[in-house]
Design brief:
With about 210 residues, the chain is mostly helical. The chain is built from 13 helices and no strands. It comes from Tropicimonas sediminicola.
């Protein structure tokens, strides 16, 4: 058996997972009627993907995009360039003092990104969370979208918690621990369940006028 499990590579993979979830859980079947086809959401892996995640922490999408654009223009998105850059250069691109520390720590971590492609999900997560600025949520998102792991989930995500509350008609938003336990029933397609929950959250909140 593969050490990494199923890898999501194409929209057909997502559709296969969504079909399995719909057959397994009737409330997911109803949710899929509202969301329509789920997105692939695959990204490149490596330092740049994690740096982008650090940039986006605790800022709006627009602010993150602006900072990332300045980093790209300055050619400061690779580990060597970031490692060599002065704090002043990185600050000029919009990074806070804390995020400069995180970006440099990630550059100095010497992570073997190629090896992570063949590592079990928990090993990937354990490797990444050792780096300052990368928590479990960021590591799980990386495993899901940059490595395509079909059975990784991010129960600490507030949107996933809120979507689960709505779909399963819970009295309160489930805690991270409770949602992690719920998601065990969605294996081996927990990564697709996450896509479904995010899609449902967006559809529901858009209808309520929340963007």
């Amino acid at each position: 058996m593969s050490r990494v499990g199923r890898i999501i590579q194409t929209p057909d993979c997502v559709a296969e997972g969504a079909d399995w979830l719909a057959r397994t859980e009737p409330r997911f079947a109803a949710a899929l009627i509202r969301t329509g086809p789920l997105p692939l959401r695959r990204r490149k892996d490596g330092y740049e993907a994690l740096l982008a995640a650090i940039v986006s922490q605790q800022v709006s999408v627009a602010s993150a995009d602006a900072i990332w654009g300045r980093l790209k223009a300055a050619r400061l998105t690779g580990p060597r360039k970031v490692g060599w850059a002065s704090d002043e250069e990185l600050r000029a691109c919009g990074l806070s003092r804390q995020k400069i520390r995180y970006a440099k720590a990630l550059a100095e971590a010497r992570i073997d990104y190629a090896a992570l492609r063949d590592a079990p999900a928990e090993e990937v997560i354990a490797t990444l969370v050792e780096v300052p600025g990368i928590g479990r949520w960021t590591a799980e998102i990386y495993a899901m979208f940059s490595l395509g792991r079909a059975d990784v989930f991010a129960p600490g995500d507030l949107a996933l918690q809120e979507a689960a509350r709505m779909i399963f008609e819970l009295e309160a938003r489930p805690t991270e621990k409770a949602l992690r336990q719920m998601a065990e029933d969605w294996s081996p397609w927990r990564g697709v369940a996450a896509r479904l929950l995010w899609a449902y959250f967006r559809v529901s909140k858009s209808r309520e006028g929340i963007r």
